[in-house]
């Protein structure tokens, strides 16, 4: 069988085009699932501290620290906040993979500049978690129904180190057509 040169080149071009388009679509789909998490401490009631206390700042040299006894604000940052068709559920975990509070659904709203936000507030921690570390996991799923939240909570129930718990949460999120992201912060005493 003899194939002419231009036929061979057109065939190879078609194969490369199909591979490029499928790769582009896979990367686009994966990047749509990713999102950034911001963790902040709100000023305590009765204290006249203005605004939020950022969990990360230049003076901490890359270490994220939150003060103890302050309400914790978890929000989805950047352009995906409030623009996704998925609903988000936040969890606070110890380094042993234990839930500190029941999971909370992030509420979609607008910030003071009118930009869409997704955030929730957790009550203050009354004591420093083990190793002074707090892991915040946000899971985005199609629908944050009670059954879905129970399935997410069941993924945490297995216990073990936080990285194994996060792995189970990520698997649960993917089985629910969603995604999970985690950030770990240091808790300081006062």
Give a written overview of the molecule.
The protein has 3 helices and 10 strands, in the order αβββββββββααβ. The chain is of the alpha+beta class and 190 residues long. The strands form 2 sheets. A 5-stranded antiparallel β-sheet has the order 2-1-4-8-7, with no helix packed on it. It has a 5-stranded mixed β-sheet with strand order 3-10-9-5-6. Helix 2 (146-156) packs antiparallel against helix 3 (162-175). The model is unreliable at 56-62 (pLDDT under 50).
Q: Gist?
A:
By secondary structure, the chain is α+β, with helices and mostly antiparallel strands. It contains three helices and ten strands. The strands form two sheets. It has a five-stranded antiparallel sheet, with no helix packed on it. A five-stranded mixed sheet has the order 3-10-9-5-6.
Features:
3 helices, single chain, five-stranded mixed β-sheet, five-stranded antiparallel β-sheet, alpha+beta, 28% helix, elongated, 10 strands, 190 residues
């Amino acid at each position: 069988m003899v194939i002419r040169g231009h036929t061979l080149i057109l065939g190879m071009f078609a194969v490369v085009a199909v591979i490029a388009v499928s790769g582009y679509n896979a990367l686009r789909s994966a990047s749509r699932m990713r999102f950034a998490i911001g963790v902040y401490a709100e000023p305590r009631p009765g204290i006249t501290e203005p605004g939020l206390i950022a969990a990360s700042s230049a003076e901490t040299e890359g270490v994220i620290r939150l003060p103890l006894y302050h309400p914790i604000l978890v929000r989805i940052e950047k352009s995906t906040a409030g623009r996704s068709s998925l609903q988000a559920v936040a969890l606070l975990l110890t380094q042993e993979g234990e839930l500190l509070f029941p999971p909370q659904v992030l509420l979609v709203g607008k910030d003071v500049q009118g930009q869409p936000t997704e955030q929730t507030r957790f009550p203050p921690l009354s004591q420093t978690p083990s190793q002074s570390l707090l892991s915040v996991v946000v899971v985005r799923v199609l629908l944050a129904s009670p059954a879905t939240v129970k399935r997410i909570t069941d993924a945490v129930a297995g216990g073990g180190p936080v990285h194994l718990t996060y792995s189970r949460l990520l698997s649960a999120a993917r089985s629910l057509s969603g995604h999970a992201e985690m950030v770990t912060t240091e808790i300081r005493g006062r």
